[in-house]
Amino acid sequence: MLHAMSAGLKSAVPMIHPTSRMVGIAGEHYAAMQLAQHGMLPILLAPGHPGIDLIAEDDSTTLTFQVKTRGADNPHAYDLDGDRLSADFLVIVRLNLWHTHGTVAGGSRYLPPESPQPPRAWVLPLEVAQLVWDIAGYRHPQRPALHTGKVIDILADWDEAWTSVTDELAARKKAAQKLVLQLAQPL
Questions:
Q1: Distance between CA 147 and CA 129 in Å, rounded?
Q2: What is the pLDDT of residues 42-91, one digit of tens each?
């Protein structure tokens, strides 16, 4: 009975296609949630901040993130000007809200609620993001993009790789401590 009632509610409530800005904000919040779950304090920046969407802090160490998000379950391109990458990490998020091509049962592009797919993210350190861009970047003057299909094997190594962020924080803390010790040495 409950299933029948919930099925009736689903059909009575129209699905609203989120705007690209809504999709982007959802991706940024997904990345922020993952960073918080890994012990960092995520700070979302105001929209329009060039090249950085999110900052993560752990004590006195800070890392920056650029987040690129698509709502589809298998997008081939993410809007990105890879020649201007400057954040410590590029996070590519796939929200899996709808099918990229065609429709599902009932004529909707949305994935059915009974078969949800969780979001998926690739967490790329800047050096890897630059390599991926060099291989699969589309340098269009009005709308540059990253074509992920060409680098799917590289991305597989960075699938939900949030520990790479904690590893980078630990390395930076260690380097800072070493510098402090060196500065404390008498001449």
A1: 12
A2: 999 998 788 999 999 988 889 999 999 998 766 788 999 999 999 999 99
Note the CATH architecture for domain 15-180: 3-Layer(aba) Sandwich (3.40)
Highest mean pLDDT of the ranges 3-7, 100-104, 169-173: 169-173
Distance CA 170, CA 178 (A): 12
Buried (b) or exposed (e) across 26-61, using 16+ Cβ within 10 A?
Answer: bbbbbbbebbeeeebebebeeeeeeeebbbbebeeb
What is the residue extent of each domain of the chain? 15-180
CA nearest neighbour of 70 among 26, 118, 10, 13? 26
Structure-token match 């949800």, residue found: 116
